[in-house]
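Hey, quick one: can you model this chain's 3D structure?
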Amino acid sequence: MATIHFNDALRLAAISLENAVLPDEPKVRVIRDIYGRLRFALDCALADYPAPALAQLQQAQAALGCYATNSDVLSHDSFSDPEAVFGNTDWHRTLVELGADEDGNPLGSAEIQLLDRQITGQDWLRPPMEGGAAHPHRFVFFGLKGGVGRSTALCMAAWGLAQRGKKVLLIDFDLESPGLSGLVLPANKGADFGVVDWFLEDAVGQGGAVLPRMVSASPLAETTIGAIRVAAAMGVGEQNYLAKLSRAYADVPSASGPQRMGARMRNMVEQLEAQEKPDVVLIDSRAGLHDLAAVSITGLADTALLFATGGAQSWTGFRQLFLHWQHRPDVAKHVRERLVFVRALTPKTDREASVRGFQREAYALFAETLYDELPAEQTQESDLFHPGEKDESAPHFPILVDLDERFQEFDPMLRPEDGGARPAQIEGAFGQLIARLLSRMDGDAA
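Sure thing. Here's the predicted structure for all 446 residues.
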C-alpha cells in the first residue's frame, strides 16, 4: 500500500465520496482533526443509513492509512449532543482538487462539507458575527512581514484624517511586537492599561473597569483640527508584559460556552467605539499568518489594507492565504471585496515599470484565486465579480505609498521646525492612501 501524506488524504477522501453507491441525502461530511486525520460523518443515526453505503464508507476511510484513526464512521450516535456538532458554524463548503486520472487528464474538483479542527488559524475562515451596533469604518493595516512601513503608514494616515477634522481611534493588535505607541505617544503620555490588560481583566470580569484607562491622546494631532486617540498594546510603565501576553489568547468560559479570541477582540473594539465615539478606527494588525491577523482581517475589518513590496516573498505568502480562502467559496465571497493591496515603499527609480508590474501580479493573484472565473468567450460578465485589470476601485488595484528616506527612521511627533516632516511631504508620500481611506468612509455614508 502506497504511503499517504497530508496533501493526499483529503483528495482521496473526496474521491471516495463520488461513489454512486452513496445516497444523495444525507450528504457525507468530513471532519479533520488537529493531526490531519479524517473521519466521515453522517447527519443522521447510523441505523438510518443504508448498510451497503456504510460499508463503502468504512472501507474508504480505512484506506486512508495513517490519516484515519479507524474505519468507524461518525453519526448522531457518536455524540451526546449531535446538534452542537452538525450545527457548528465552522463547517465550510470546501473545494478539493481531485488530481488527474491514469492518462493525466484532470479530474476537476469536488465539493465537500469540511469541519477542520485546527490548533490555530481557524479565524481565517470565520466571518464577522451577525448583528451588533453600527460602527465607524474599521481599517486594518496588515503585512506578511515587518519592514514594509505599515505602522508608519498608519500613523501618517491617522494624521491626514485628523488634519481633515476626523476623530481617529488607533488600536494596536500587534501584541507580540508592540511598537505603535512608540510612534504616536511619548513614553510618559501612555494610558495606565493596554490592550493586553483588557484581555486579562476581562477574563475575570473587570474589562469594563480598565476600559476608561486604556486610551490616551496622541500629540501627533496637536496641530490638526481632529483628534487621535490610542489604545496601545501595553500600559505606561509596564513590567509584566510577557506574563500577560502568555495568557491573553485564552478562551474565557461563559454561560453560552467558551468565548474565543475573535469574539473577545470584537467585544473590546465595540466597547472602545462606544466609549470614544470615533469617526474612523485604524487597527495595526499582527504581521504574518497569525490568529490575531485572522480575526482582524476576517472578523473586524471593513477594509483590510494588504501591505506588500512586490518581491517573491510577498506574492508567495499572499497566494497561500488566498488559496486557503479560494477553497472555501462562501468565505472567499465574503472577504474579497474588503481587501485592498498597498504597494509599500514604491521606488522613485523606474517607478512606472515597478507599479505596472505590481498591478499585474496583484490582478493575476485575485483573478486566479478570489475573483469569479469568466466564461472563455467573454472578458466581463455583469453578474460575476471580476473587475478589470485597470479598474481603480478593484481590490487588486494598488494604493501607492512612496519610498521616502525621510520616513524610514523618523519621529512622527517632531514638528517641522524641529526636523519633522512637513505636511506637504506627508501628503506627497501618503496622500493616495489618505484619499482612499476617505473615499471608503464616504462610501459608508452614501
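One thing worth noting: The chain has 14 helices and twelve strands.
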